[in-house]
């Protein structure tokens, strides 16, 4: 399908609390950090676990299983054991709707 699709309401997001959703069959972790909304693939590149079950701090998300951290802006790993980046997706805010395009990463 592609293009921007509604992921959730902006009011569904709380600062530094990740939210896991599915868009076009893709697992997506939404994060509100320092007033900015980010969308990153909801799967750690090191272990097949959901990043949305981790913690957010300073625009980074930490995988709960082994402690790998990823930059919410770029998806780049910031600490071992992960060495591969996680795809990030473009986000647009339209009123109270959070729109994400999983067709690009």
Automatic annotation (TrEMBL):
Keyword field contains Metal-binding: yes
Which key words tag this protein in UniProt? Answer: 2Fe-2S, Iron, Iron-sulfur, Metal-binding
Which top-rank group of organisms is this from? Bacteria
Boundaries of each Rieske domain copy? 5-100
Question: Which InterPro entries does the protein's record reference?
Answer: Rieske_2Fe-2S, Rieske_2Fe-2S_sf
Q: Does the keyword RNA-binding belong to this entry?
A: no
Give the matching PROSITE patterns.
RIESKE
PANTHER family linked to this entry: 3-PHENYLPROPIONATE_CINNAMIC ACID DIOXYGENASE FERREDOXIN SUBUNIT, FERREDOXIN-RELATED
Name listed for the protein in its UniProt record: 2Fe-2S ferredoxin
Please name the source species: Protofrankia coriariae
């Amino acid at each position: 399908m592609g293009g921007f699709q509604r992921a959730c309401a902006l009011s569904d997001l709380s600062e530094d609390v990740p939210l896991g959703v599915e868009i076009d069959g893709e697992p997506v972790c939404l994060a509100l950090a320092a007033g900015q909304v980010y969308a990153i693939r909801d799967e750690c590149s090191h272990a097949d676990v959901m990043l949305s079950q981790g913690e957010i701090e300073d625009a980074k998300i930490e995988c709960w299983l082994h402690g790998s951290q990823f930059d919410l802006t770029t998806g780049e790993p910031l600490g071992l054991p992960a060495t591969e980046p996680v795809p990030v997706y473009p986000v647009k805010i339209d009123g109270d709707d959070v729109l994400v395009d999983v067709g690009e990463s």
